[in-house]
Amino acid sequence: LLTQSPGTLSLSPGERATLSCGASQTVNNNYLAWYQQTPGQAPRLLIYGASKRATGVPDRFSGSGSGTDFTLTISRLEPEDFAVYYCYQYSDSPSFGQGTRLEIK
Amino acid sequence: QVQLVQSGPEVKKPGSSMKVSCKASGGTFSANSINWVRQVPGHRPEWMGKIMPILGMTDYAQRFQGRVTITADKSTGTVYMELNSLTSEDTAMYYCGRALNFYDGFMVDPWGQGTLVTVSS
Fold this sequence. Notes:
The structure holds two protein chains of two kinds.
Chain A: E1 2-5, E2 8-11, E3 17-23, E4 32-37, E5 44-48, E6 52-53, E7 61-66, E8 69-74, E9 84-89, E10 95-96, E11 100-104
Parallel strand pairs in A: 2-11
Antiparallel strand pairs in A: 1-3, 3-8, 4-5, 4-9, 5-6, 7-8, 9-10, 9-11
Chain B: E1 3-6, E2 10-12, E3 18-25, E4 33-39, E5 46-52, E6 57-60, E7 68-73, E8 78-83, E9 92-99, E10 107-108, E11 115-119
Parallel strand pairs in B: 2-11
Antiparallel strand pairs in B: 1-3, 3-8, 4-5, 4-9, 5-6, 7-8, 9-10, 9-11
């Protein structure tokens, strides 16, 4: 079970965003990904293997963590970053967290 | 780049079955796996299962075991996801997504465009 916090994060463009994802059991091999979703679109892959950026993802996005605690950091928010973010573990019984909504303050 | 094109929206009666397709264009599935994820509006995505088309290997989420079947037609490069005994709780957007590995794969971009399935009497 993946639990994300906070549920909603209100920030301004240019600020730093820190999103958390906690797992009830160790995520084997750090098989943890982060996805971004905007309304009406499929999720977009940002991070895999806890810290590896997917192709074409801006370097303001970074992932960290291991074991049961993971973090997605967006260093300086751009207007297009306001969306819903999901963590996803793909080791045993793949599952998504409940999401963090990043909204403009 | 492999694009995934899904079949169109469906309206189903409770108790019936649905079958959604996902066709690869611009490439082949190779050793990839195709995953199915559904999402009720306003809720988290939910992984349903996957298939490695070239071998026909499948894996299903426990909560859908016995109700979902994922198959592949290698000749047409199409993967199908069938879900039986539909209820209103199966109303959702259904996505297919390609993963580079079967056992430890995460879905890479682009996903299919999604298929909205509405279950209503």
